[in-house]
């Protein structure tokens, strides 16, 4: 630890993108913010990003460009010449009733999320201003409260993050982003952290004499004492600095960094750790693990059976299969009974059940790992797709519901197009959808006498999903045109709602 943040940044002159104006740490409580001021800050920040070589800031700059273009479109009269100043002139208001339109809200949230991805102080301050603005304009915005929770967590304020996440959960019925698990993890981590600090106080009572001094100075003295070989004094000073950090409500990342450094010094100077140090290390590991991953009540997930490519092939061999799209025309198809007549019914991501149109059964749920929609719905087999192994494992650990599936695809089924088909970005540049990954897998195995696609119009009729997921845009990272061409090249027949590949 080289420094301790003793106060929070205030706005620079002409730059409203900063931490709360009272100079205190950010909280779940919203600081009222004007839309006009927020957009001005976005325009100023856009100028700062010109020429940046950081990929995250480049992505933010592009999203800022879209936001400012949207704002210009919503002006009641053409913006005057003279650059970005015309985009956000004082007194201008959005065309949609003088408030924050839905399109502008989406663009603001996108900028907030891109700012959060950057992780730098300037971008975090911009995201905080956006969060304040969104929740001032739309106090019950679920996306706004989720953004605020993620932001507060990134800024090292776990208690405030929990408050914001709970506001989000109170406004939604579908926890598709695994926020409940995140809240449980943060709470458990906070409890273990408190236990650890109490144990340190009891183990090193002399630390209390130093806890009232500035943490940075005490820490420096502790390191100096350790370098001189005065272990007892060093321990009292270093633990005193940790207590001082806690009292000063330092950002969690700073406290964790200092605590980790202290434990490194302790373990490096002892041939064999004491019982107290062993307990401290165990509490440290548990609170870190819960902060990162959340608690795991049932490590076996209700006795789920993992299956690989071969086992999955054997389970579907010789059976008729239909894949049900989440498209608008499925919701008015009247094909429910016909769909339930197949041996296996495959549904995707945030599928919605309306028995008369969609059928009742779901035998295989194929979903991207990033969202948690329908993971609690009982199915025979769940296949979770994801491009990055670590992220995929993290999602499985935090989103799987024990007892909700009998079989679960293992890593051999994680990313069929890339890992099984060996299709690189030179052959398939875009990210394959869950539907395309599933269809590719079934076509590759080629053991189903009937392989029908129901309602696959590649979102030409819009989306038909759970209500919570309907607010999510149809993402542009997928190439639906190429996927449609691949399907139609293999189609044996096309009749109304049905495309038959066998």
TrEMBL record:
Entry keywords, A to Z: Glycoprotein, Glycosyltransferase, Membrane, Transferase, Transmembrane, Transmembrane helix
Record InterPro entries: Glyco_trans_29 (IPR001675), GT29-like_sf (IPR038578)
A family per Pfam: Glyco_transf_29
Signal peptide: none
GO cellular component: endomembrane system; membrane
Region (Disordered): 1-30
Entry membrane topology: Single-pass membrane protein
Primary location class: membrane
Location in or out of the cell: Endomembrane system; Membrane
Basic residues compositional bias, start-end: 1-10
Top-level division of the source organism's lineage: Bacteria
Keyword Transmembrane attributed: yes
A molecular function GO annotation: sialyltransferase activity
Protein name, entry field: Glycosyltransferase family 29 (Sialyltransferase)
Organism annotation: Streptomyces glaucescens
Lineage: Bacteria, Bacillati, Actinomycetota, Actinomycetes, Kitasatosporales
